[in-house]
Amino acid sequence: MKYIFWLCAAITIIVITFMGAYIIVGGLPFFSHTNIVSFLLGKKWNPSGEIFGIYPMLITSIYATVGATSIGVVVGMSTAIVLVEILPLKAAKVFSAAIDLLAGIPSVIYGFWGLMVIVPIIDKFWGGKGAGSSLLAAIIILSIMILPTIIRMSEVSLKAVPKEYKEGALGLGASKFQYIFKVQIGAAKSGIMAGIVLGIGRALGETMAVILVSGNAPIIPKSLVDPVRTLTANIALEMGYASGVARQALFATGMVLFALIMLINFLLTQFIKNAERRNGNARKA
Amino acid sequence: MKKRLLSCITALVLGTMILGGCTAKDSPSSAVQSGEAQVAEDKKEESKSEETKKGGVKVSIVGSTTVAEPMEKLAEKYKELGNTDNLEIQGVGSSAGIKAAIDGSADIGMSSRELKDEEKEGVVETVIAYDGIAVVVHPSNGISDLTKAQVKDIFEGKITNWKEVGGIDKDIVVVTREAGSGTRGAFEEILKLLDENKASTIVETAVVGEGTGAIMAAVASKEASIGYVSEGYLNDTVKPLSIDGVKPEVEAIKAGQYTISRPLILITKSDLKPEAQAVIDFILGDEGQKIMAEKYIPVKN
Question: By residue range, what is the domain housing residue A101?
Fold first, then answer.
Protein backbone atom coordinates (compact mmCIF):
# COMPACT_ATOMS: atom_id res chain seq x y z
CA MET A 1 0.00 0.00 0.00
CA LYS A 2 2.75 2.32 1.02
CA TYR A 3 4.40 1.84 -2.34
CA ILE A 4 1.29 2.82 -4.25
CA PHE A 5 1.39 6.16 -2.50
CA TRP A 6 5.07 6.35 -3.23
CA LEU A 7 4.45 5.68 -6.88
CA CYS A 8 1.74 8.34 -7.05
CA ALA A 9 4.08 10.83 -5.47
CA ALA A 10 6.84 9.82 -7.85
CA ILE A 11 4.61 10.46 -10.88
CA THR A 12 4.90 14.22 -10.44
CA ILE A 13 8.65 14.06 -10.49
CA ILE A 14 8.67 11.60 -13.37
CA VAL A 15 6.42 13.87 -15.42
CA ILE A 16 8.54 16.94 -14.72
CA THR A 17 11.73 15.07 -15.60
CA PHE A 18 10.13 13.70 -18.71
CA MET A 19 8.92 17.12 -19.83
CA GLY A 20 12.27 18.72 -19.18
CA ALA A 21 14.03 15.96 -21.08
CA TYR A 22 11.56 16.22 -23.95
CA ILE A 23 12.16 19.94 -24.37
CA ILE A 24 15.91 19.57 -24.10
CA VAL A 25 16.05 16.66 -26.55
CA GLY A 26 13.95 18.69 -28.98
CA GLY A 27 15.89 21.90 -28.53
CA LEU A 28 19.54 20.92 -28.13
CA PRO A 29 20.18 19.98 -31.79
CA PHE A 30 19.21 23.54 -32.68
CA PHE A 31 22.40 24.92 -31.19
CA SER A 32 24.44 23.29 -33.91
CA HIS A 33 22.62 25.62 -36.31
CA THR A 34 22.73 28.83 -34.27
CA ASN A 35 25.00 29.25 -31.29
CA ILE A 36 23.42 30.12 -27.98
CA VAL A 37 24.78 33.66 -27.83
CA SER A 38 23.40 34.70 -31.20
CA PHE A 39 20.18 32.89 -30.31
CA LEU A 40 19.72 34.80 -27.06
CA LEU A 41 21.03 38.15 -28.28
CA GLY A 42 19.99 38.03 -31.95
CA LYS A 43 17.60 40.84 -32.74
CA LYS A 44 15.96 39.28 -35.79
CA TRP A 45 13.44 36.44 -35.94
CA ASN A 46 12.85 35.33 -39.51
CA PRO A 47 12.16 31.59 -39.75
CA SER A 48 11.85 31.53 -43.56
CA GLY A 49 15.38 32.94 -43.80
CA GLU A 50 16.50 30.69 -40.93
CA ILE A 51 17.44 33.67 -38.78
CA PHE A 52 16.60 32.91 -35.19
CA GLY A 53 17.18 35.55 -32.53
CA ILE A 54 14.89 35.65 -29.51
CA TYR A 55 16.24 38.80 -27.89
CA PRO A 56 13.11 40.82 -28.76
CA MET A 57 10.85 38.16 -27.27
CA LEU A 58 13.03 37.79 -24.20
CA ILE A 59 12.92 41.53 -23.54
CA THR A 60 9.18 41.64 -24.18
CA SER A 61 8.50 38.78 -21.78
CA ILE A 62 10.51 40.56 -19.09
CA TYR A 63 8.84 43.93 -19.72
CA ALA A 64 5.37 42.42 -19.73
CA THR A 65 6.00 40.39 -16.58
CA VAL A 66 7.59 43.25 -14.66
CA GLY A 67 4.85 45.67 -15.76
CA ALA A 68 2.02 43.31 -14.93
CA THR A 69 3.52 42.29 -11.60
CA SER A 70 4.07 45.92 -10.52
CA ILE A 71 0.45 46.80 -11.18
CA GLY A 72 -0.76 43.49 -9.81
CA VAL A 73 1.16 43.82 -6.54
CA VAL A 74 -0.01 47.36 -5.80
CA VAL A 75 -3.65 46.70 -6.64
CA GLY A 76 -3.65 43.17 -5.22
CA MET A 77 -2.10 44.06 -1.86
CA SER A 78 -4.40 47.03 -1.45
CA THR A 79 -7.37 44.79 -2.16
CA ALA A 80 -6.14 42.22 0.35
CA ILE A 81 -5.72 44.87 3.04
CA VAL A 82 -9.22 46.18 2.38
CA LEU A 83 -10.60 42.64 2.57
CA VAL A 84 -8.86 41.72 5.80
CA GLU A 85 -8.79 44.90 7.81
CA ILE A 86 -11.26 47.41 6.50
CA LEU A 87 -14.40 45.84 5.05
CA PRO A 88 -17.00 44.34 7.38
CA LEU A 89 -17.07 40.55 7.24
CA LYS A 90 -20.22 40.23 5.12
CA ALA A 91 -19.07 42.66 2.45
CA ALA A 92 -15.68 40.99 2.42
CA LYS A 93 -17.34 37.66 1.67
CA VAL A 94 -19.10 39.06 -1.41
CA PHE A 95 -15.81 40.58 -2.51
CA SER A 96 -14.02 37.27 -2.02
CA ALA A 97 -16.56 35.41 -4.11
CA ALA A 98 -15.99 37.89 -6.95
CA ILE A 99 -12.25 37.32 -6.75
CA ASP A 100 -12.72 33.57 -6.87
CA LEU A 101 -14.78 34.06 -10.00
CA LEU A 102 -11.98 36.13 -11.51
CA ALA A 103 -9.57 33.27 -10.85
CA GLY A 104 -11.84 30.80 -12.61
CA ILE A 105 -12.21 32.66 -15.93
CA PRO A 106 -10.35 30.87 -18.75
CA SER A 107 -7.48 32.85 -20.21
CA VAL A 108 -8.95 32.89 -23.71
CA ILE A 109 -11.90 34.86 -22.32
CA TYR A 110 -9.52 37.42 -20.82
CA GLY A 111 -7.82 37.61 -24.19
CA PHE A 112 -11.05 37.99 -26.09
CA TRP A 113 -12.26 40.69 -23.74
CA GLY A 114 -8.92 42.44 -24.07
CA LEU A 115 -9.14 42.28 -27.86
CA MET A 116 -12.67 43.67 -27.90
CA VAL A 117 -12.36 46.29 -25.13
CA ILE A 118 -8.78 47.14 -24.14
CA VAL A 119 -7.24 47.13 -27.62
CA PRO A 120 -9.78 49.54 -29.17
CA ILE A 121 -9.45 51.88 -26.17
CA ILE A 122 -5.66 51.98 -26.53
CA ASP A 123 -6.06 52.47 -30.28
CA LYS A 124 -8.42 55.40 -29.71
CA PHE A 125 -6.17 57.26 -27.28
CA TRP A 126 -2.64 56.34 -28.27
CA GLY A 127 -2.83 54.53 -31.62
CA GLY A 128 0.53 52.90 -32.20
CA LYS A 129 1.95 50.68 -34.93
CA GLY A 130 -0.36 47.83 -34.03
CA ALA A 131 -3.49 50.00 -33.67
CA GLY A 132 -3.93 49.09 -30.02
CA SER A 133 -2.45 45.59 -30.14
CA SER A 134 0.51 46.35 -27.93
CA LEU A 135 2.75 45.74 -24.96
CA LEU A 136 0.46 47.97 -22.91
CA ALA A 137 -2.57 45.81 -23.71
CA ALA A 138 -0.62 42.69 -22.69
CA ILE A 139 0.46 44.31 -19.40
CA ILE A 140 -3.10 45.36 -18.56
CA ILE A 141 -4.57 41.92 -19.28
CA LEU A 142 -1.77 40.11 -17.43
CA SER A 143 -2.07 42.33 -14.38
CA ILE A 144 -5.77 41.55 -14.15
CA MET A 145 -5.08 37.85 -14.60
CA ILE A 146 -2.56 37.63 -11.78
CA LEU A 147 -4.68 39.66 -9.35
CA PRO A 148 -6.59 36.71 -7.84
CA THR A 149 -3.37 34.85 -7.03
CA ILE A 150 -1.76 37.84 -5.34
CA ILE A 151 -4.94 38.84 -3.48
CA ARG A 152 -5.59 35.30 -2.20
CA MET A 153 -2.06 34.69 -0.96
CA SER A 154 -1.77 38.14 0.63
CA GLU A 155 -5.18 37.81 2.24
CA VAL A 156 -4.39 34.46 3.81
CA SER A 157 -1.04 35.57 5.17
CA LEU A 158 -2.37 38.90 6.46
CA LYS A 159 -5.11 36.99 8.28
CA ALA A 160 -2.56 34.64 9.79
CA VAL A 161 -0.76 37.43 11.64
CA PRO A 162 -1.35 36.75 15.37
CA LYS A 163 -3.97 38.90 17.10
CA GLU A 164 -1.46 39.86 19.80
CA TYR A 165 0.50 41.88 17.26
CA LYS A 166 -2.53 44.01 16.52
CA GLU A 167 -3.47 44.40 20.16
CA GLY A 168 0.09 45.25 21.04
CA ALA A 169 0.47 47.77 18.25
CA LEU A 170 -2.83 49.48 18.94
CA GLY A 171 -2.10 49.36 22.69
CA LEU A 172 1.15 51.22 22.09
CA GLY A 173 -0.82 53.96 20.38
CA ALA A 174 -0.34 53.04 16.73
CA SER A 175 -3.10 54.05 14.32
CA LYS A 176 -4.80 51.37 12.24
CA PHE A 177 -2.75 52.25 9.15
CA GLN A 178 0.48 52.37 11.07
CA TYR A 179 -0.31 48.87 12.31
CA ILE A 180 -1.14 47.60 8.80
CA PHE A 181 1.92 49.01 7.07
CA LYS A 182 4.53 48.77 9.80
CA VAL A 183 3.54 45.56 11.57
CA GLN A 184 1.08 43.41 9.67
CA ILE A 185 2.64 43.51 6.21
CA GLY A 186 6.07 42.88 7.69
CA ALA A 187 4.82 39.85 9.57
CA ALA A 188 3.02 38.50 6.48
CA LYS A 189 5.95 39.11 4.17
CA SER A 190 6.80 35.55 3.20
CA GLY A 191 3.23 34.67 2.27
CA ILE A 192 2.87 37.81 0.21
CA MET A 193 6.16 37.09 -1.55
CA ALA A 194 4.94 33.58 -2.36
CA GLY A 195 1.87 35.13 -3.95
CA ILE A 196 4.05 37.43 -6.02
CA VAL A 197 6.21 34.52 -7.19
CA LEU A 198 3.12 32.64 -8.31
CA GLY A 199 1.86 35.78 -10.02
CA ILE A 200 5.14 36.25 -11.87
CA GLY A 201 5.02 32.63 -12.97
CA ARG A 202 1.55 33.06 -14.35
CA ALA A 203 2.37 36.34 -16.11
CA LEU A 204 5.49 34.89 -17.72
CA GLY A 205 3.74 31.71 -18.80
CA GLU A 206 0.44 33.11 -20.02
CA THR A 207 0.01 32.56 -23.74
CA MET A 208 -3.48 32.61 -25.16
CA ALA A 209 -4.61 35.94 -23.76
CA VAL A 210 -1.33 37.56 -24.76
CA ILE A 211 -1.44 36.28 -28.34
CA LEU A 212 -4.84 37.88 -28.79
CA VAL A 213 -3.91 41.36 -27.56
CA SER A 214 -0.20 41.89 -28.11
CA GLY A 215 0.07 42.03 -31.93
CA ASN A 216 2.88 39.43 -31.99
CA ALA A 217 5.43 41.43 -33.99
CA PRO A 218 8.91 40.11 -33.15
CA ILE A 219 10.44 43.51 -32.42
CA ILE A 220 12.08 45.12 -29.41
CA PRO A 221 9.42 47.49 -28.07
CA LYS A 222 10.45 51.13 -28.13
CA SER A 223 7.19 52.34 -26.69
CA LEU A 224 4.33 50.89 -24.68
CA VAL A 225 2.06 50.87 -27.71
CA ASP A 226 4.36 48.91 -30.02
CA PRO A 227 3.08 45.47 -31.05
CA VAL A 228 5.20 42.82 -29.33
CA ARG A 229 5.65 39.07 -29.07
CA THR A 230 6.42 37.15 -25.88
CA LEU A 231 8.41 33.92 -25.62
CA THR A 232 5.30 31.85 -25.02
CA ALA A 233 3.45 33.47 -27.92
CA ASN A 234 6.41 32.76 -30.17
CA ILE A 235 6.12 29.04 -29.50
CA ALA A 236 2.35 28.84 -29.74
CA LEU A 237 2.10 30.94 -32.91
CA GLU A 238 4.52 29.00 -35.03
CA MET A 239 4.39 25.45 -33.67
CA GLY A 240 1.53 24.56 -36.00
CA TYR A 241 3.52 24.73 -39.21
CA ALA A 242 7.12 24.67 -38.08
CA SER A 243 9.37 21.87 -39.26
CA GLY A 244 13.08 21.11 -39.19
CA VAL A 245 15.28 23.83 -37.77
CA ALA A 246 12.37 26.19 -37.19
CA ARG A 247 10.75 23.59 -34.97
CA GLN A 248 13.95 23.01 -33.04
CA ALA A 249 14.22 26.78 -32.59
CA LEU A 250 10.81 26.74 -30.93
CA PHE A 251 11.90 23.94 -28.60
CA ALA A 252 14.99 25.99 -27.80
CA THR A 253 12.69 28.92 -27.01
CA GLY A 254 10.91 26.59 -24.62
CA MET A 255 14.24 25.75 -22.98
CA VAL A 256 14.94 29.43 -22.43
CA LEU A 257 11.49 29.92 -20.93
CA PHE A 258 12.00 26.91 -18.68
CA ALA A 259 15.35 28.22 -17.50
CA LEU A 260 13.97 31.71 -16.96
CA ILE A 261 11.13 30.48 -14.76
CA MET A 262 13.45 28.25 -12.74
CA LEU A 263 15.85 31.15 -12.27
CA ILE A 264 13.10 33.46 -11.05
CA ASN A 265 11.74 30.84 -8.67
CA PHE A 266 15.21 30.19 -7.31
CA LEU A 267 16.05 33.87 -6.80
CA LEU A 268 12.77 34.63 -5.09
CA THR A 269 12.83 31.62 -2.77
CA GLN A 270 16.36 32.62 -1.87
CA PHE A 271 15.13 36.13 -1.22
CA ILE A 272 12.29 34.89 0.99
CA LYS A 273 14.64 32.63 2.95
CA ASN A 274 16.95 35.56 3.61
CA ALA A 275 14.08 37.78 4.64
CA GLU A 276 12.81 35.14 7.04
CA ARG A 277 16.21 34.64 8.56
CA ARG A 278 16.57 38.36 9.11
CA ASN A 279 13.09 38.46 10.60
CA GLY A 280 13.92 35.60 12.92
CA ASN A 281 17.11 37.26 14.09
CA ALA A 282 15.32 40.52 14.70
CA ARG A 283 12.70 38.76 16.77
CA LYS A 284 15.29 36.96 18.85
CA ALA A 285 17.09 40.22 19.53
CA MET B 1 15.37 -5.05 -1.02
CA LYS B 2 12.05 -3.29 -1.23
CA LYS B 3 13.81 -0.05 -2.01
CA ARG B 4 15.59 -1.69 -4.86
CA LEU B 5 12.32 -3.01 -6.22
CA LEU B 6 10.85 0.47 -6.08
CA SER B 7 13.77 2.01 -7.91
CA CYS B 8 13.54 -0.74 -10.49
CA ILE B 9 9.90 0.09 -11.10
CA THR B 10 10.66 3.78 -11.29
CA ALA B 11 13.44 3.19 -13.76
CA LEU B 12 11.17 1.02 -15.86
CA VAL B 13 8.38 3.60 -15.86
CA LEU B 14 10.83 6.37 -16.69
CA GLY B 15 12.35 4.29 -19.43
CA THR B 16 9.07 3.52 -21.12
CA MET B 17 7.98 7.12 -20.83
CA ILE B 18 11.14 8.41 -22.44
CA LEU B 19 10.93 5.81 -25.17
CA GLY B 20 7.30 6.66 -25.71
CA GLY B 21 8.27 10.30 -25.75
CA CYS B 22 10.81 9.72 -28.46
CA THR B 23 8.38 8.09 -30.81
CA ALA B 24 5.76 10.71 -30.00
CA LYS B 25 8.32 13.38 -30.77
CA ASP B 26 9.28 11.89 -34.07
CA SER B 27 5.85 11.63 -35.52
CA PRO B 28 4.71 15.27 -35.48
CA SER B 29 8.11 16.66 -36.43
CA SER B 30 7.99 14.85 -39.69
CA ALA B 31 4.24 14.73 -40.06
CA VAL B 32 4.29 15.21 -43.80
CA GLN B 33 7.07 12.73 -44.40
CA SER B 34 5.69 10.10 -42.11
CA GLY B 35 2.27 10.66 -43.66
CA GLU B 36 3.91 10.02 -46.98
CA ALA B 37 5.71 7.03 -45.64
CA GLN B 38 2.47 5.77 -44.22
CA VAL B 39 0.75 6.05 -47.57
CA ALA B 40 3.69 4.45 -49.25
CA GLU B 41 3.73 1.68 -46.69
CA ASP B 42 0.04 1.07 -47.02
CA LYS B 43 0.47 0.90 -50.73
CA LYS B 44 3.33 -1.51 -50.38
CA GLU B 45 1.37 -3.81 -48.17
CA GLU B 46 -1.57 -3.67 -50.46
CA SER B 47 0.41 -4.22 -53.58
CA LYS B 48 2.11 -7.12 -51.87
CA SER B 49 -1.16 -8.75 -50.96
CA GLU B 50 -2.68 -8.14 -54.34
CA GLU B 51 0.41 -8.68 -56.38
CA THR B 52 -0.67 -12.12 -57.34
CA LYS B 53 -4.03 -10.84 -58.52
CA LYS B 54 -3.40 -7.52 -60.26
CA GLY B 55 -0.06 -5.95 -59.45
CA GLY B 56 -0.04 -2.17 -58.92
CA VAL B 57 1.95 0.05 -61.21
CA LYS B 58 4.21 2.68 -59.70
CA VAL B 59 3.34 6.27 -60.56
CA SER B 60 5.82 8.82 -59.27
CA ILE B 61 4.54 12.34 -58.60
CA VAL B 62 7.24 14.87 -57.74
CA GLY B 63 7.32 18.62 -57.13
CA SER B 64 5.75 21.53 -55.28
CA THR B 65 5.16 20.99 -51.58
CA THR B 66 1.98 23.05 -51.87
CA VAL B 67 0.52 20.63 -54.39
CA ALA B 68 1.94 17.61 -52.56
CA GLU B 69 -0.33 18.33 -49.61
CA PRO B 70 -3.70 17.91 -51.39
CA MET B 71 -2.05 15.22 -53.48
CA GLU B 72 -1.67 13.06 -50.36
CA LYS B 73 -5.39 13.33 -49.78
CA LEU B 74 -6.08 12.62 -53.42
CA ALA B 75 -3.89 9.53 -53.26
CA GLU B 76 -5.75 8.30 -50.21
CA LYS B 77 -9.11 8.77 -51.90
CA TYR B 78 -7.77 7.15 -55.06
CA LYS B 79 -6.82 4.08 -53.08
CA GLU B 80 -10.15 4.05 -51.28
CA LEU B 81 -11.89 3.91 -54.61
CA GLY B 82 -10.21 0.59 -55.18
CA ASN B 83 -7.26 1.53 -57.35
CA THR B 84 -4.14 -0.46 -56.68
CA ASP B 85 -1.60 1.67 -58.50
CA ASN B 86 1.22 2.79 -56.27
CA LEU B 87 1.32 6.60 -56.09
CA GLU B 88 4.67 7.87 -54.89
CA ILE B 89 4.47 11.50 -53.84
CA GLN B 90 7.51 13.65 -53.11
CA GLY B 91 7.34 17.32 -52.16
CA VAL B 92 10.64 18.78 -53.32
CA GLY B 93 9.63 22.14 -54.78
CA SER B 94 8.16 23.33 -58.06
CA SER B 95 11.38 23.78 -60.03
CA ALA B 96 12.65 20.30 -59.15
CA GLY B 97 9.26 18.85 -60.04
CA ILE B 98 9.18 20.50 -63.45
CA LYS B 99 12.69 19.30 -64.15
CA ALA B 100 11.83 15.76 -63.09
CA ALA B 101 8.85 15.75 -65.44
CA ILE B 102 10.93 17.07 -68.34
CA ASP B 103 13.76 14.56 -67.98
CA GLY B 104 11.33 11.75 -67.33
CA SER B 105 12.52 10.79 -63.83
CA ALA B 106 8.99 11.41 -62.59
CA ASP B 107 5.76 10.43 -64.29
CA ILE B 108 4.02 13.57 -63.12
CA GLY B 109 5.59 16.86 -62.01
CA MET B 110 3.83 19.24 -59.64
CA SER B 111 4.19 23.01 -59.80
CA SER B 112 2.60 25.87 -57.89
CA ARG B 113 3.84 28.49 -60.33
CA GLU B 114 3.50 29.19 -64.04
CA LEU B 115 6.09 27.46 -66.20
CA LYS B 116 8.82 29.58 -67.73
CA ASP B 117 9.04 29.54 -71.51
CA GLU B 118 12.14 27.37 -71.60
CA GLU B 119 10.40 24.83 -69.36
CA LYS B 120 7.37 24.51 -71.59
CA GLU B 121 8.96 22.56 -74.42
CA GLY B 122 7.76 19.03 -74.88
CA VAL B 123 5.55 18.89 -71.81
CA VAL B 124 1.83 19.06 -71.21
CA GLU B 125 0.48 21.29 -68.44
CA THR B 126 -2.73 20.41 -66.67
CA VAL B 127 -4.12 23.00 -64.25
CA ILE B 128 -5.86 21.19 -61.40
CA ALA B 129 -6.81 24.19 -59.25
CA TYR B 130 -6.10 27.86 -58.57
CA ASP B 131 -4.94 29.55 -55.41
CA GLY B 132 -5.99 33.19 -55.13
CA ILE B 133 -5.07 35.54 -52.28
CA ALA B 134 -7.19 38.60 -51.63
CA VAL B 135 -5.68 41.74 -50.14
CA VAL B 136 -8.19 43.03 -47.61
CA VAL B 137 -8.75 46.30 -45.76
CA HIS B 138 -11.27 47.68 -43.26
CA PRO B 139 -14.70 48.24 -44.88
CA SER B 140 -14.51 51.96 -44.08
CA ASN B 141 -11.28 52.36 -46.07
CA GLY B 142 -11.76 54.65 -49.07
CA ILE B 143 -9.13 52.86 -51.13
CA SER B 144 -10.46 50.13 -53.37
CA ASP B 145 -7.67 49.58 -55.86
CA LEU B 146 -3.90 49.21 -55.52
CA THR B 147 -1.20 48.12 -57.91
CA LYS B 148 0.82 44.99 -57.20
CA ALA B 149 3.88 47.18 -56.63
CA GLN B 150 2.03 49.32 -54.08
CA VAL B 151 0.93 46.22 -52.18
CA LYS B 152 4.53 45.01 -52.12
CA ASP B 153 5.78 48.38 -50.86
CA ILE B 154 3.11 48.52 -48.16
CA PHE B 155 3.98 45.04 -46.88
CA GLU B 156 7.69 45.84 -46.97
CA GLY B 157 7.10 49.02 -44.98
CA LYS B 158 8.19 51.39 -47.75
CA ILE B 159 4.73 52.95 -47.92
CA THR B 160 3.60 53.64 -44.37
CA ASN B 161 0.71 56.06 -44.72
CA TRP B 162 -2.56 55.64 -46.59
CA LYS B 163 -2.22 59.13 -48.07
CA GLU B 164 0.75 57.94 -50.12
CA VAL B 165 -1.63 55.76 -52.13
CA GLY B 166 -4.41 58.32 -52.27
CA GLY B 167 -6.18 57.64 -49.00
CA ILE B 168 -6.62 59.54 -45.76
CA ASP B 169 -3.69 60.63 -43.60
CA LYS B 170 -3.35 57.59 -41.37
CA ASP B 171 -0.51 55.19 -40.65
CA ILE B 172 -0.97 51.81 -42.27
CA VAL B 173 -1.27 48.85 -39.90
CA VAL B 174 0.10 45.80 -41.72
CA VAL B 175 -1.41 42.48 -40.65
CA THR B 176 0.23 39.20 -41.66
CA ARG B 177 0.05 35.47 -41.05
CA GLU B 178 2.58 33.63 -38.87
CA ALA B 179 5.78 32.23 -40.35
CA GLY B 180 5.29 28.85 -41.96
CA SER B 181 1.70 29.46 -43.02
CA GLY B 182 1.00 28.34 -46.59
CA THR B 183 -0.95 31.48 -47.39
CA ARG B 184 1.94 33.63 -46.19
CA GLY B 185 4.36 31.53 -48.21
CA ALA B 186 2.30 31.94 -51.38
CA PHE B 187 1.79 35.65 -50.80
CA GLU B 188 5.51 36.21 -50.26
CA GLU B 189 6.35 34.15 -53.31
CA ILE B 190 3.91 35.88 -55.66
CA LEU B 191 4.78 39.42 -54.50
CA LYS B 192 8.49 38.59 -54.19
CA LEU B 193 8.53 39.48 -50.50
CA LEU B 194 11.64 37.38 -50.02
CA ASP B 195 15.29 38.36 -50.09
CA GLU B 196 18.08 36.32 -51.65
CA ASN B 197 18.24 34.05 -48.58
CA LYS B 198 14.51 33.38 -48.75
CA ALA B 199 14.04 35.47 -45.61
CA SER B 200 10.71 37.23 -45.47
CA THR B 201 10.87 40.96 -46.16
CA ILE B 202 7.45 41.70 -44.68
CA VAL B 203 7.89 44.64 -42.31
CA GLU B 204 8.85 43.50 -38.81
CA THR B 205 6.35 45.70 -37.03
CA ALA B 206 3.47 43.94 -38.79
CA VAL B 207 0.82 42.56 -36.47
CA VAL B 208 0.88 38.76 -36.66
CA GLY B 209 -2.34 36.78 -36.50
CA GLU B 210 -2.50 33.02 -36.10
CA GLY B 211 -4.80 31.66 -38.78
CA THR B 212 -7.17 33.19 -41.30
CA GLY B 213 -9.77 33.93 -38.62
CA ALA B 214 -7.37 36.08 -36.63
CA ILE B 215 -6.43 38.04 -39.76
CA MET B 216 -10.07 38.67 -40.61
CA ALA B 217 -10.79 39.76 -37.03
CA ALA B 218 -7.78 42.06 -36.90
CA VAL B 219 -8.54 43.73 -40.24
CA ALA B 220 -12.22 44.03 -39.38
CA SER B 221 -11.44 45.79 -36.10
CA LYS B 222 -8.56 48.08 -37.09
CA GLU B 223 -9.52 50.92 -39.41
CA ALA B 224 -6.12 51.57 -40.94
CA SER B 225 -5.17 47.93 -41.44
CA ILE B 226 -4.32 45.84 -44.48
CA GLY B 227 -4.03 42.06 -44.57
CA TYR B 228 -4.39 39.09 -46.88
CA VAL B 229 -6.48 35.92 -46.87
CA SER B 230 -7.27 33.12 -49.28
CA GLU B 231 -10.02 34.11 -51.67
CA GLY B 232 -12.34 31.43 -50.33
CA TYR B 233 -12.52 33.00 -46.88
CA LEU B 234 -13.76 36.47 -47.89
CA ASN B 235 -16.86 37.82 -46.18
CA ASP B 236 -18.57 41.15 -45.41
CA THR B 237 -16.44 42.05 -42.42
CA VAL B 238 -13.54 43.08 -44.64
CA LYS B 239 -13.16 44.79 -48.01
CA PRO B 240 -11.13 43.02 -50.70
CA LEU B 241 -9.04 45.34 -52.89
CA SER B 242 -8.77 45.20 -56.63
CA ILE B 243 -5.21 44.63 -57.75
CA ASP B 244 -4.25 46.54 -60.90
CA GLY B 245 -7.97 47.09 -61.43
CA VAL B 246 -9.04 43.45 -61.15
CA LYS B 247 -11.23 42.19 -58.33
CA PRO B 248 -10.26 38.92 -56.61
CA GLU B 249 -13.12 36.90 -58.03
CA VAL B 250 -13.10 33.26 -59.01
CA GLU B 251 -13.51 33.96 -62.73
CA ALA B 252 -10.73 36.55 -62.80
CA ILE B 253 -8.40 34.21 -60.90
CA LYS B 254 -9.15 31.34 -63.29
CA ALA B 255 -8.54 33.59 -66.29
CA GLY B 256 -5.23 34.70 -64.80
CA GLN B 257 -6.29 38.38 -64.75
CA TYR B 258 -6.10 38.69 -60.98
CA THR B 259 -2.37 38.60 -60.40
CA ILE B 260 -2.00 37.65 -56.74
CA SER B 261 -2.87 34.10 -57.60
CA ARG B 262 -1.15 31.02 -58.87
CA PRO B 263 -2.20 27.92 -60.70
CA LEU B 264 -1.52 24.47 -59.29
CA ILE B 265 -0.22 22.53 -62.28
CA LEU B 266 0.61 18.94 -63.12
CA ILE B 267 3.29 18.54 -65.76
CA THR B 268 3.59 15.45 -67.93
CA LYS B 269 5.19 14.29 -71.12
CA SER B 270 2.75 13.93 -73.99
CA ASP B 271 3.29 10.16 -74.08
CA LEU B 272 2.59 9.37 -70.47
CA LYS B 273 1.65 5.92 -69.28
CA PRO B 274 -2.07 5.10 -68.95
CA GLU B 275 -1.86 4.70 -65.17
CA ALA B 276 -0.56 8.27 -64.80
CA GLN B 277 -3.26 9.53 -67.15
CA ALA B 278 -5.82 7.74 -64.96
CA VAL B 279 -4.55 9.63 -61.92
CA ILE B 280 -4.89 12.96 -63.71
CA ASP B 281 -8.36 12.08 -64.93
CA PHE B 282 -9.31 11.22 -61.37
CA ILE B 283 -8.02 14.57 -60.07
CA LEU B 284 -9.97 16.44 -62.75
CA GLY B 285 -13.07 14.36 -62.00
CA ASP B 286 -15.76 15.18 -59.44
CA GLU B 287 -14.14 13.39 -56.49
CA GLY B 288 -10.72 14.89 -57.14
CA GLN B 289 -11.99 18.41 -57.66
CA LYS B 290 -14.02 18.15 -54.47
CA ILE B 291 -10.79 17.52 -52.56
CA MET B 292 -9.03 20.40 -54.30
CA ALA B 293 -11.96 22.70 -53.49
CA GLU B 294 -11.35 22.24 -49.76
CA LYS B 295 -8.57 24.82 -49.93
CA TYR B 296 -8.34 26.04 -53.50
CA ILE B 297 -10.47 27.13 -56.42
CA PRO B 298 -11.29 24.04 -58.49
CA VAL B 299 -11.02 24.23 -62.26
CA LYS B 300 -14.39 22.55 -62.72
CA ASN B 301 -17.46 23.26 -60.67
Answer: 2-284
Of B25, B197, B207, Cβ closest to residue A25: B25
Predicted confidence (pLDDT) per residue in B157-212, tens digit? 888 888 888 888 888 889 998 887 777 888 888 888 888 877 888 888 888 888 78
Chain A residues closer than 8 Å to B180 by CB: 47-48, 238, 240-243, 246
Report the relative pairing of strands B242-243 and B108-111 from DSSP bridges. unpaired
pTM metric for this prediction: 0.72
CATH of domain B132-261: 3.40.190.10
Domain ranges (residues) in chain B: 57-131+263-298, 132-261
Out of B9, B30, B205, whose CB is closest to A217?
Answer: B205
- Substitution target from A133, A135, A210, A238 for chain B, most B beta carbons within 10 A: A133
Measure B257 CA to nearest chain A CA, in Å.
29
- The verdict on a CB contact (< 8 Å) between B207 and A22 is no
Give the tens place of pLDDT for each residue, B268-291.
Answer: 888 888 888 888 888 888 888 888
Q: How far off is chain A from B182, nearest CA to CA, in Å?
A: 9
Q: How far apart are CA A43 and CA A83, in angstroms?
A: 45
Helices and strands (H and E) in chain A: how many: 14, 2
Amino acid letter at B183?
T
CATH number of A240's domain: 1.10.3720.10
Q: With the CA atoms of B171, B175, B176 and B178 taken in that order, what torsion angle do they form, in degrees rounded to the nearest 10? A: 120
Q: Check pLDDT > 60 for residue B61.
A: yes
Residues in chain B: 301
Please tell me the predicted confidence (pLDDT) of residue A67. 93
Q: Looking at beta carbons, which residues of chain A come within 8 Å of B227? A: none
**A130 vs A223: CA distance, rounded Å:** 11
Q: What is the ipTM of this complex?
A: 0.79
Chain B: residue nearest A25 by CA? B22
Q: How many domains does chain A have?
A: 1
Nearest alpha carbon to residue B204 among A217, A129, A228: A217
Q: Tally the C-alpha atoms within 13 A of residue B16's C-alpha that lie toward its C-beta.
A: 5
Tell me if the domain spanning B57-131+263-298 has CATH number 3.30.1330.60.
Answer: no
